[in-house]
Structures are given as C-alpha cells and as structure tokens.
Design brief:
Length: 248
C-alpha cells in the first residue's frame, strides 16, 4: 500500500473562496498562503484532453457556454475562467492537468484529483485521468484520486492500481466498507455533516483514512481533527491555514 504523507489541510478547488476555482491562479493563491495540498476537479474534452472544471457545463465559472465535454480543447482553451470571479482574474484560462502537474512539481505541492466525468463518460474519464496522473506525477507524491462515480473509480483502479484512491460519498451509505474494499481505496471522503464520532471510529477501525469536505468553520475543523479525521478540505484557506492542525 502507498505510504500516506498528505498534508492535513486541502485547499478546495485550488484556492477556496480566494480565487476562481480550478485554475492555476487558485493554486497559486493557496500556495502563497503556504498550503501544500490542493483538491481539484478533472474531466475530458471532446478530443481527450484532461482539464479542470467542476460543472458539466461552462456557464457558472467561465465565459463559455454549453457542455464542456462536447467541446475540443482548441475551443476550451479560449474560454475565460477568471473574469466571472473578479476583473483581477480576467483572462485566466482553464488549466490542463499537465499544467497542474508542472505547478505541483515547481512548487512542491500535493494534489487530490477528483475525477468529475461528464455524464456518460465515467469509465473513459476514470481511466484517462488515472493514467495521466500516474505519468505526470512521476517522482512526486502520488495524487490522491477520488470520485463520486463508482464506475470512474473502478476504471481508475484498473488503469493505475498503485495510485491511492479515495471513495467520495455524496451521502452516507452503510455499505461503505464493502465499496472501499472492492475499489481498493485507502481513504473515504465524506461530507463533514455525515461524520459522527462513531462513524469516524468505525472507518479508522477498517484502516481507512478520512477526508472531510467541505469544512469552513474552524471550530468544526478542530473537532474533526481531534476525532481522527486525516484531511480537512476547506474553502476558507485563509482561516483554516496550512498550520491549523499544529496550532490546536
Ligand atoms: O472532493 C471534495 C469535494 O470537492 C466534493 O464536492 O462538488 O465540491 O466537487 P464538489
Ligand atoms: Mg471536488
């Protein structure tokens, strides 16, 4: 099993609320505060390029419109993914996963890549993201690969079995142990309101690491860390800083 040496605080979507989500500028904003671990959402363009975007569609977080996975990278790379957030970020592009890997290598950062497939392309996205992650992060801390999609996670396991995987739960489900075993996951990523002390104890007893998302209240983050949660994924990267765990 891969050794676990991830930082305790993960900057959600790169820069939390401080920068346009899932951009290099977001990662830079988090890194400027000293953050070492970043969560991002990855999907495929129509011609098989892997880039960062949360939604299936472009409208909410860019100047583009429509289903992103229906467009070629040549079309997607012209989209402004920063202006919707603030004029300061106008012209910020959608990043390729390869550019994210370069940033991680240059700044010595760790990453949790959430596979966020366009509906209908779960298996292909899971496979392609895992293969690219394995290739691009050679010599670095391996990316922690997660997904809400069981199909995507299974495809990632088959394509790159040695990459660490986290089972991302949208809602709590009682068959988590069987699912985690089947998908050979080292971690479970749970909505923090679903995490009780009893559930944390049960997850730890099975040897699973726990990532809690998305925790924006420092008191709640402190409670979860004291109860045994391994990673706090947060939008409030300013209030829940990289040294948060050491200060409690
Ligand atoms: O990976 C944790 C979290 O990012 C999952 O939810 O919707 O923000 O991708 P979402
Ligand atoms: Mg995510």
């Amino acid at each position: 099993m891969t050794s676990w040496n991830y930082a305790t605080i993960a900057a959600h979507r790169g820069g939390g609320k401080l920068a346009p989500e899932n951009t290099l500028a977001a990662i830079d904003a988090g890194a400027a505060l000293g953050h070492r671990l970043f969560e991002c959402d990855a999907k495929l363009s129509k011609d098989g390029q892997i880039f960062l975007l949360h939604d299936d569609t472009l409208e909410r977080t860019s100047s583009g419109w429509g289903v992103a996975g229906d467009l070629s990278w040549e079309q997607l790379r012209q989209v402004d993914a920063g202006g919707w957030f603030s004029h300061r970020f106008k012209g910020e592009p959608l990043p390729l996963l390869s550019e994210v890997a370069e940033r991680c290598r240059r700044l010595n950062l760790q990453i949790n890549i959430e596979i966020k497939p366009t509906t209908g392309s779960e298996v292909q996205t899971g496979r392609e993201v895992a293969l690219a992650a394995q290739r691009l992060w050679q010599g670095m801390t391996p990316p922690l690969i997660s997904s809400f999609s069981i199909e995507a996670l299974a495809a990632a396991r088959d394509a790159a079995p040695t990459l660490p995987r986290g089972l991302l739960l949208e809602n709590w489900r009682d068959d988590w142990a069987e699912l985690a075993r089947r998908l050979e996951c080292v971690a479970i990523h749970v909505w923090h309101r679903d995490l009780t002390a009893e559930r944390i104890t049960a997850l730890k007893a099975k040897g699973l690491r726990i990532l809690a998302w998305t925790v924006n209240n420092p008191r709640r983050a402190e409670q979860l860390l004291r109860q045994g949660v391994d990673i706090i994924c947060t939008d409030r990267i300013d209030r829940i800083g990289p040294d948060f765990a050491r200060q409690i």
